[in-house]
Amino acid sequence: MQAVPHYLELHRFALIEISGEDAFPFLHRQISGDLNEIVSRGRMFSAWCHANGRVICTFLVFRRNHSLYLVLPAGMKDRILRRLTLYVLRADVRLTDASGGHTLLGLYGANLTVTEIFGSGVRSGEIFVNEGCSVLDLWGAVPRCLAICRNNHLASVTEKIQGMCSKGEASGWDLLDIEAGVPWITETTSEKFLPQMLNLDLMGGLSYEKGCYPGQEVIARLHYRGELKRRMFLGTGQGEYIPGAGTELIRADTGTRIGEVINAVPCPGGDFRLLAVAETDGSSSPICLQDSSRSRITLQDLHYPERAST
Question: Is 17 helix (H, G, I), strand (E, B) or coil?
Answer without folding.
Answer: strand
